[in-house]
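for the record, two folds in this file. i put them one after another cuz i was lazy. first one right below, seq on top, structure tokens after. the second one comes after a little note so u can tell where it starts
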Amino acid sequence: MGYIIREVKDNLKRYKFSNQVCIWSITMTMLIIGIFLLFAVNLQIVINDLRERVEIVVFLKSGVDSRRVSQLKAKINRIDNVKSVKYSSPEEALIEFTMDSDLRKQIEFIGENPLPASFSVHLDLEYEELMERVAGKIEKYDSVDEVRYGKEEVNNITKLVNTVKFSGLVLVIIVGIMTMTIIGYTIHLAVHLRGQEIRVMKLVGATAWFIRLPFLIEGILQGCVGGLLSAGLLYVVYRIILTKLEGIVFLPLYYLAVMVIVGMVFGLAGNFIGIGSHIREGRAGT
């Protein structure tokens, strides 16, 4: 183990250029991923806020007494995925509507309260099929006059979430392959310069993993440094640009930890690929 540690230290000193190329490749890759994560985290906050506003509105028939209102509320609460049910009397609905000056003028022109009692129903999962299914069940209950919900809004939110998830997966795959290719090629050149040394090690009986291990440790170190640098640069970008936008939040700590870990995986994989062709029997140093 002492030999491997000394070898790693020597390689980091002797091959500064290749190490810097690997580190900055990982840094730029993780910075791109970090920017996307920053966008995704803040978009998720917006989406959650929109989901909180999406609701099923249940309008009741006129003349429904308090006993039937309580029974209907209990029935709705028993439906799967219903998170909350809020009752609004005609008087409460009138107070809310008259906060808008135009609506207040229209109601004053009518001369009476035209608004019915209603329930606002929120679900624990908002997607089109579920909203439609729950709304269909509620519509069949007695005392229910009409059921409305933001079908188009729910559909748009669902599409947006799926698009972000798919785009993130594609981005990680593309930049990951590019990074590992760059690192692999860089390590391949560095190993080529050490071909004689590797041949000697194989001649004296060194196993493939004994030869490979220092490179893999270097890859992990490169990934760790690259991940930390990318996290730092991402914070600089956030402080300089994004803090000027109201409500933008920085990545939670565990996201930054994931960035460092993913950087280490990229560094490990890139070095594994780069050293591979030189470890095969009969081709070391070619």
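(here's the note) second protein begins now
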Amino acid sequence: MSNHDLEPRPSFPPLHWATEEGILMVGGLLTARWVLAAYRRGIFPWPMRMGDQAEVLAWFSPDPRAVLELDQLVVSRRLARRMRTGRYRMTCDTDFGGVIRACAAPRDEDEPGTWITPDMIRVYSQLHQLGHTHSIEVWENETLVGGLYGVSIGGFFAGESMFHRCLDGSKMAMVALVAHLRARRFSLLDVQQATDHAVRMGATSIRRPQFVERLKTAVAQDTTFGTHLDLSELPRLLTR
């Protein structure tokens, strides 16, 4: 009998039980099986610290939910010019480990780290081996200067985190992601929270029931993320 057979089946409360902050449940297991089951239901894990207490595993389903419509991406003129210079090269799944570790690194001297714990890195790396998590890398020569990673199921992609080591590094990764998802005929890009960064790039918020209905349709699509970055839609995004 495998460990998978011994693992309790994923079980989550109804989504409307979530708090105003979006917390649906505390506990459960941080495993590939539980994480995939969560995303299929419109839920995602987010480890939290409760005051001075130990870290706990929380599961979120916020309402409203932030999405970035694939035909509504906002690319500033400055960003478009930067991407046209040819100075940067973009790839997918070339260095997933490097991207997720960069996303987990402290953002500044006053921030000790992020919610991307070693256990999160372990599980999302397992999901990468299973073909469900993917990374976009931005390179300047042979140096990784930006990127993002997220979860892919059918025609659904959930953006998890991004980082930059050069001006607009994370934004270039987002533009490349949207170009790829458009080319692969994805229908739903979940960005979870309407941060200032996401809103500037065109993210909007929809109510949870609408998100869940769109999610059901997206995960049932007969498409995959693929193995090579398809930038055939990039010129159109940079000239709108």
